[in-house]
Amino acid sequence: MSLLLLLTIVALQSSPAISDPAVSYSGYKVWAISPRTNEENQFLGKMSQQYGLTVLREARFVNSSMDLVIPPTLERDLKNVMDNANIPFVVAINDLQTAIDNQNSNNDEIPNSRAAAHNMTWTNYHRLSNIYGYMSYLATTYPNLVTLINIGTSYEKRPLYVLRISNSSSPGTNPAIWIDGGIHAREWISPATVSYFIQQLVEVPANAKLLKNVDWYIMPVMNPDGYEYTFVSNRLWRKTRSVTSNPSCPGVDPNRNFGYKWGGLGTSTNPCSDIFKGTKAFSEPETLATSNYILGKSSQIKLYLTFHSYGQYALIPYGYDVVYPPDYNDMLALANKAVSKFTKYQFSVGNSAALLYAAAGGSDDWAKSIGIKYSYTFELADTGANGFTLPASQILPVGQDFFPALEVFVSQVATTTTVRATTTKPTTKLPTTATSKKPTITPCRCICP
Ligand SMILES: *[C@@H]1O[C@H](CO)[C@@H](O)[C@H](O)[C@H]1NC(C)=O
Ligand SMILES: *[C@@H]1O[C@H](CO)[C@@H](O)[C@H](O)[C@H]1NC(C)=O
Ligand SMILES: *[C@@H]1O[C@H](CO)[C@@H](O)[C@H](O)[C@H]1NC(C)=O
Ligand SMILES: [Zn+2]
To answer: What's the per-residue H, E or C state across the chain?
Structure first.
């Protein structure tokens, strides 16, 4: 497809088909609350439900942090409630709208010569048209290396794009690494970081070693409808934008919509919930197209990486419950090796249900279930100070800190033979040789991943 045609399509399709007024979070605060007992934790759960509060993350353990959005109209009441219950909290974000306005306010300096070709940078978060425009630019500019693949269409008819990066004379024969981002709309650092990986792999000659004997399939924005919605309507939107049985509550949580143990723990049947699982597995065109594409390449893809935020975790399946795959130790060892490359951001590593909440229908569980041996969810920065409104000035630090881990994954995959993962029974016990560091306590899989 020609660049011009592509850009035209993107421009047409990104125009907001959205009538909702933009949601303002002016005067809204984010409270970080650390329940000290299970009773306090339950109390907070009930309180947020009763007041209809937006939960940015739930406390999983005693003394872990629950991040709540506090509307100005409820602040006094909620403060009384908290005082009466004698639960302390800290104000993590004093004015959410200010944080939102400041998140993406850098001046991009695009050299004139390049402005015509693409508008992508990593000093700001970008609309879908710039991300897609950049992918298209790369495919045009490096035709021997990069292929733009349209794998389907979103609910609102945006194209779903995967970029294949391969220096093989017969692409499709190398072992491959799959990377996706943007499953959850509001986690802006994810598409930014994933597109940074693309830039590094394609445009930095010193990284050519990462293309030796490995193909890459990279999808920076799996949920483009939701992503665009966070720019034009509601910065904190998480789900897809499909119509549900409740006209005032659209959207399905795509990371509860994958077809392995779909509908189990940590999911909701309520369309108004942020963890609504949908009417069936793969009800969403985005998860359906992605899973079908991956299935078609499942003998080639050896490693599945999906990027979310926030919390700084490397999460290992299974997440539907505290269940360890038979080769969990291999998965843990590789994850530990990968995070050992980080120098700026500390990540906690562990089984996702044990470390956070159980949550069924996640993409990582599904990828593991189809025989991709190494499957991980990464929760990028930060640990709550900025949360989803992580300033754009941290895109490059986050990407640069993570990038060396890709070398670890390449070394693993490039030496992997084509033996499929064993399908022996999973176990609920940690395999005995696992170096199971006690999870460094904090939040949850319930809302974040
Ligand atoms: C939680 O924190 C409080 C205050 O720091 C401490 O006294 C208590 O022992 C902690 N509880 C747990 C279960 O770690
Ligand atoms: C880049 O942005 C400028 C200014 O908005 C616009 O005129 C131009 O068409 C964009 N270029 C591409 C390739 O999207
Ligand atoms: C692609 O492979 C060729 C042949 O092995 C090599 O000369 C070239 O440097 C590689 N290019 C990249 C971008 O990796
Ligand atoms: Zn997420």
So the answer is: CCHHHHHHHHHHHHCCCCCCCCCCCCCCEEEEECCCCHHHHHHHHHHHHHCCCCEEECCCCCCCCEEEEECHHHHHHHHHHHHHHCCCEEEEECCHHHHHHHHCCCCCCCCHHHHCCCCCCCCCCCCHHHHHHHHHHHHHHCCCCEEEEEEEECCCCCEEEEEEECCCCCCCCCCEEEEEECCCCCCCHHHHHHHHHHHHHHHCHHHHHHHCCCEEEEECCCCHHHHHHHHHCCCCCCCCCCCCCCCCCCCCCHHHCCCCCCCCCCCECCCCCCCECCCCCCCCHHHHHHHHHHHHCCCCEEEEEEEEECCCEEEECCCCCCCECCCHHHHHHHHHHHHCCCCCCCCEEEEHHHHCCCCCCCHHHHHHHCCCCEEEEEEECCCCCCHHHCCHHHHHHHHHHHHHHHHHHHHHHHCCCCCCCCCCCCECCCCCCCCCCCCCCCCCCCCCC
Tens-digit pLDDT profile for residues 101-123: 999 988 776 555 555 699 999 99
Find the domain containing 201 and state its range.
Answer: 128-413
CATH number, residue 288: 3.40.630.10
CATH of the domain at 46: 3.30.70.340
Q: Which atom of ligand 3 is nearest to the CA of 208?
A: 14
Whether the predicted model's global pTM rises above the 0.85 cut: yes
- Per-residue pLDDT tens digits for 210-219: 999 999 999 9
Catalytic sites, residue numbers: 379
| CB 208 less than 6 A from any atom of ligand 3 | yes
How many domains does the chain divide into?
2
